[in-house]
Amino acid sequence: MSRSVWKGPFVDSYVLKKAEAARESGRNEVIKIWSRRSTILPQFVGLTFGVYNGHKHIPVNVSEDMIGQKFGEYSPTRTYYGHAADKKAKRK
Amino acid sequence: MSELICVGAIAGSYGVRGEVRLKSFCAVPEEIEAYSPLSSEDGSQSYSLTLTRAIKGGFSGYLGGVETKEQADAIKGLKLFAPRDRLPSLPSDEYYYADLVGMEVYDTGGVLLGTVKSVQNHGASDLLELQGEAIKGTALLPFTMAAVPTVDLEQGRIIADPPEGLF
């Protein structure tokens, strides 16, 4: 069953506070968070979070298409390297 | 001869008519056929490749010089390589993982941070995994214009401006 709309999205309060402080400071920094369950909100767009995966903080640059997802979705807890082959990386 | 890049592997024989079962490591798996002829790791053997169909876990296809099931069984586990110069050229600000791996990463002051161990993408942006003496274990650097302002493929070096708290 999906979450009731009247409750609004769930976000741990410390994540909101840290994001607000980072935005006000204007510094280029990674906001370390442990809350994988928090929903990504529109006010997080453009910030970089370090989302803990049980081992280390994985940098997650928040973009508009990530709104509504959970932070944990972008910080996998298992490592799989695979092969580079012809895979491409794009600088955004 | 240019650097060889692993694009696939033989998983065994398929059927009894000399077809092979093939795993593709390419971003678009079918494109492995476009890099044919493929070679073995040491470059001593060369194989033309024709895909026949998609099967569970990969493709079936014919390799040049492999005509029987016994021959196909004998090359099980063989990794297939394509020369780097056969990959199509990319627009600016797009790079092959294979080109980025091994590059040295310096900060804006010219201090060596480490080398690129791997490139990862977990759904947000591409990440460069760095390893070096200055880094405990490995560190992930977002592959963005802000964090990586310069990529010099010819000199094999990357200039990074990592955000605070990354290392």
UniProtKB/TrEMBL annotation, chain A:
GO cellular component: ribosome
Xref: Gene3D superfamilies: 30s Ribosomal Protein S19, Chain A
Cross-referenced Pfam families: Ribosomal_S19
Residues of the signal peptide: none
This protein's UniProt keywords: Ribonucleoprotein, Ribosomal protein, RNA-binding, rRNA-binding
SUPFAM superfamilies from the UniProt entry: Ribosomal protein S19
Similarity-based family: Belongs to the universal ribosomal protein uS19 family.
Biological function: Protein S19 forms a complex with S13 that binds strongly to the 16S ribosomal RNA.
This protein's name: Small ribosomal subunit protein uS19
Annotated organism of origin: Ruegeria spongiae
Primary gene name: rpsS
